[in-house]
Design a protein that fits this description.
Layout lengths: L1 E3 L2 H13 L4 E6 L5 H13 L2 E6 L19 H11 L3 E3 L3 H4 L17 H5 L3 H16 L3 E5 L3 H14 L4 E5 L19 H6 L2 H14 L5 H13 L4 E10 L13 E9 L2 E9 L2
Parallel strand pairs: 1-4, 2-3, 2-5, 3-4, 5-6
Antiparallel strand pairs: 7-8, 8-9
The chain binds adenosine monophosphate (AMP).
Amino acid sequence: MDLISSATEMQQRALALRAAGRRIALVPTMGYLHEGHLSLVRLARKRADVVILSLFVNPTQFGPNEDFSRYPRDFERDRALCEKAGVDLLFAPEKESMYVADASVRVTEECLSRGLCGASRPGHFSGVTTVVAKLFNLCQPHVAVFGEKDAQQIRVIRRMVRDLDFPVEIVGAPIVREPDGLAMSSRNVLLKPEHRRQAVCLRRALDVAKRLVALSERNPDGLRAAMEAEIAVAPDAVIDYIAIVDDYSLEPVVRVKRPVLVALAVKFGNVRLIDNEVLKP
Ligand code: AMP
């Protein structure tokens, strides 16, 4: 496995691989890798002959009071996991290599990124679209793999690719969970043991919504109330949002008629967890 830490070198290498007729898959990550990330690598492996994993804790997608400095990092562990998973090229750029001091262009999606996490985290998605656009230009992928764990993110990225004509196929990967149902996340390690036990309430709330939709509940307020009651079982959980939105437009629905994205963000202390499921009536 090769390691590249310079953006310029990454782009030169990617252009050479393309010129040699190689098919490139990119898996963008912020590191502290877990089985969720590795499932993306396996999907990438099937769709290309060169797999690039990028590892970059992107400062521009964190708000001033968010957890950029606390975000878990362990480069040597990540490098070993990448090697074992069959990553061909680990791209781990320095911040200075990604952003020049007076960088003044950003990519902003103005519709899908307004609600849900976008409402709680102003500027987050423009940080994401900007860094992903840069990663596409640097790594020249034919295909890029993103997790459905970040449901809004993959929808925003698909929209960016569509609207700005990036020649990249976006592949979505299912959510990988811990045995008790908690969605895997690099942030889970930041949870206190007691909060880790309570964190299963996100999955349970989604299960309640799923059961109710199967029992013909069509009123989003009814779903939300049942989900809130399930979250209330966890004494330290603070709901950031529970959203029941159209799966395509991400606009709130008044009735569950088409597939809906049920998404939630819940905080335990200063650790914010997200989860989601698409429910079909
Ligand atoms: P992150 O390092 O958290 O920015 O995540 C990098 C990529 O891995 C994103 O496309 C995430 O959606 C995806 N991902 C993170 N956690 C999971 C999970 N539990 N299951 C599937 N994909 C995930």
